[in-house]
TrEMBL record:
This is Glutamate--tRNA ligase. A motif ('KMSKS' region) lies at residues 241-245. It comes from the Bacteria. It is found in: Cytoplasm. GO terms for biological process: glutamyl-tRNA aminoacylation. Catalyzes the attachment of glutamate to tRNA(Glu) in a two-step reaction: glutamate is first activated by ATP to form Glu-AMP and then transferred to the acceptor end of tRNA(Glu). PROSITE patterns: AA_TRNA_LIGASE_I. Its main location: cytoplasm. It comes from Microvirga subterranea. The lineage of its organism: Bacteria, Pseudomonadati, Pseudomonadota, Alphaproteobacteria, Hyphomicrobiales. Keywords: Aminoacyl-tRNA synthetase, ATP-binding, Cytoplasm, Ligase, Nucleotide-binding, Protein biosynthesis. ATP binds at residue 244. It catalyses: tRNA(Glu) + L-glutamate + ATP = L-glutamyl-tRNA(Glu) + AMP + diphosphate.
Length: 446
């Protein structure tokens, strides 16, 4: 079997959200696992709404996720190909001119519904004579162009949904070319899939009906249709459909919120599948978990709370080498010992700044029992301090005061960090060091 060629085809009219991200990842990771090619195809034929800034943002997002494309193409640079394909369909009689206005089409649709008929296009334009067409054009009308569907059942085997079929007799002949000569999505998409030799089309289940139409266009052009896989869509935690207007679920907003790309990718790929949702730190490992037969056909909820939990779990296992430069940029220069001490208490890497302040100061100590803290300060050992210092010190304080358990540990934590919770003090105390510890136990901000 030849290696797969797949594509992710966003319109650069806004920032991509987590739903788009799922499509991109399933394509990219499948290609990576099988040694294939991942193509980024910008569907930017809408020249007015498509913006280069959005295209640049999408490319940045894919690199951030760890799945940069192998090839990038832009539909706005491929109009000659679409013109040629349209002409071939016209010559073969599969693309025909129609002159109805939107108002006329809406009137016909309502009339058909009132008569209990399906509201599909009645193909009246096929009955127009050349003279009638000339008359309409003389009146200023310009044709839009419809693809003539064969009224038959179109079957295919879907990698996710199994055996599928659509009866095209229930569909209107789709418009492929507008009155102004611009193309709707379907014709350029099929033309590109043929020219780029796309082997697998992996996309959301909202495209299932489109598939039957596209298969007929592939066949009309003498091409073998690709293999299709239609996965369930992602929704918000409340069940709302995703769209570009939900800016808080764009990849840019998730990144700016401090979330890790591996956490985002893990949830986007694994939710709605038979795999347990868990953080997968390595892109190649995540790719090996994709099994299209185990992906749900129904919608799956993308829960931001679950994403935050995955993010924290990922950070708790993150090696120092992976974050060294980021820690330096945050001014947290405590090295690997500091990172290993605090990472278990982080939800996001940026949270490390809070614990660097706890170590490095200034911290305002919280002291409720001054006599106890004074006794603890008296028992504080001289340096150098290491991982054994905390245990030795607390044993000495316990022997001197008779206090134990939470009554022993909580006042020391409050005095040393000003907080009721945090990393293990056995790891923090050597980082705080003797001078700052003594000052804090004396009630001084240090």
């Amino acid at each position: 079997m030849s290696k797969p060629i797949v594509r992710f085809a966003p319109s650069p009219t806004g920032l991509i959200h987590i739903g788009n991200t799922r499509v991109a990842l399933l394509n990219a990771l499948y290609a990576r696992r099988e040694g294939g090619t991942f193509i980024l195809r910008f569907d930017d034929t809408d020249l007015e709404r498509s913006k280069r800034e959005y295209a640049d943002a999408i490319e940045f997002d894919l690199r951030w996720l760890g799945v940069p494309p192998d090839v990038t193409v832009r539909q706005s640079e491929r109009f000659d190909l679409y013109d040629d394909v349209a002409e071939r369909l016209r010559i073969s009689g599969r693309l025909y001119a129609c002159y109805e206005t939107p108002e006329e089409l809406e009137f016909r649709r309502k009339r058909q519904l009132a008569r209990g008929l399906p509201p599909i296009y009645d193909r009246a334009a096929l009955k127009l004579t050349p003279a009638e067409k000339e008359k309409l054009e003389a009146e200023g009308r310009r044709p839009h162009w419809r693809f003539l569907l064969e009224h038959r059942v179109v079957p295919w085997t879907d990698m996710i949904r199994g055996d599928c079929h659509v009866d095209c007799a229930s569909l209107s002949d789709p418009v492929l070319v507008r009155e102004d000569g611009t193309y709707l999505y379907t014709l350029p998409s099929v033309a590109d899939d043929i020219e780029l030799k796309i082997s697998h089309v992996i996309r959301g289940e909202d495209h299932v009906t489109n598939t039957a139409v596209q298969i007929q266009i592939f066949e009309a052009l003498g091409a073998v249709p690709p293999i299709f896989a239609h996965h369930g869509l992602l929704t918000t935690a409340s069940g709302e459909g995703l769209s570009k207007r939900l800016g808080h679920l764009s990849l840019r907003s998730l990144r700016e919120a401090g979330l890790e790309p591996q956490a985002v990718a893990s949830l986007a790929v694994l939710v709605g599948s038979a795999e347990a949702v868990r953080p997968v730190a390595d892109v190649d490992k995540l790719a090996r978990l994709i099994d299209f037969s185990h992906i749900s056909r129904g919608p799956a909820k993308f829960d931001e709370h679950e994403l935050e939990q995955l993010n924290a779990r990922l950070i708790h296992e993150m090696p120092y080498a992976e974050v060294r430069e980021r820690l330096a940029s945050l001014g947290a220069n405590g090295g690997e010992t500091f990172w290993n001490a605090v990472r278990g208490n982080l939800g996001k890497v940026a949270d490390v700044a809070e614990w660097w302040k706890v170590v490095n100061g200034p911290v305002t100590p919280v002291i409720e029992d001054r006599a106890f803290i004074a006794a603890a300060a008296q028992a504080l050992p001289d340096g150098p301090w290491d991982a054994t210092t905390w245990k030795a010190w607390t044993e000495a304080v316990k022997a001197a005061t008779g206090v134990k358990g939470k009554a022993l540990f909580m006042p020391l934590r409050l005095a040393l960090t000003g907080l009721e919770h945090g990393p293990e003090l056995g790891a923090l105390l050597p980082l705080i060091g003797p001078d700052r510890a003594r000052a804090r136990l004396a009630g001084q901000a240090a």
